[in-house]
Task: inverse folding
């Protein structure tokens, strides 16, 4: 008797695949990715994004070093609790529970969608530290915008492939996250 075992892809590969092919990841691999791991990705993404924002504000003399630390902590909170809350609200709005999609799956898929944001935020931080550039808008906002594609696929899956609904809610999610970043950036200064 010959048996074959399926080998699960390492989580880091799934994270990178979320950038390249989010539709496939959402449909076939999200059940294997625990929500705490995904929240680690989104939490680190927003931590680095808000750190860039704090460094930009520090360079322009709008805040002091303690403000940079506060901004960084706000980024961690925003990338974990904020993303999870947004995912749960969209899960309820999409009536995903009726399709057998759990809240844990929704939080995991939403959070892992910020894989590209993590790459952009890390790149921006490198440019910020190495060259002294102001990078929050160029790298951080661009990273958040790149996350809209995985968000769209996630919402489509949760809503039963309702395209117009998915586009509208994805746009709303992007606007909420960027508006929140803008407001928290003022709070830190």
Result:
């Amino acid at each position: 008797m010959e048996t074959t075992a399926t080998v699960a892809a390492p989580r880091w590969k799934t994270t990178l695949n979320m950038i390249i092919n989010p539709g496939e990841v959402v449909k076939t691999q999200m059940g294997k990715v625990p929500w705490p791991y995904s929240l680690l990705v989104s939490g680190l993404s927003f931590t680095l994004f808000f750190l860039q924002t704090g460094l930009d504000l520090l360079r322009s003399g709008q805040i002091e070093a303690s403000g940079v630390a506060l901004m960084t902590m706000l980024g961690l909170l925003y990338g974990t609790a904020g993303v999870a809350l947004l995912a749960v609200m969209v899960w309820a709005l999409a009536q995903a529970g009726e399709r057998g999609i759990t809240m844990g799956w929704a939080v995991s898929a939403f959070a892992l969608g910020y894989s590209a944001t993590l790459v952009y935020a890390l790149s921006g931080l490198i440019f910020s530290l190495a060259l002294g550039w102001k990078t929050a808008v160029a790298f951080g906002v661009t990273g958040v915008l790149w996350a809209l594609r995985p968000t769209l696929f996630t919402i489509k899956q949760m809503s039963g492939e309702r395209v117009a609904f998915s586009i509208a809610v994805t746009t709303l999610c992007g606007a909420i996250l960027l508006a929140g970043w803008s407001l928290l950036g003022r709070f830190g200064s």
Remarks:
- The longest helix spans residues 65-93.
- The chain is about 75% helix and 0% strand.
- The two ends are 67 Å apart (CA to CA).
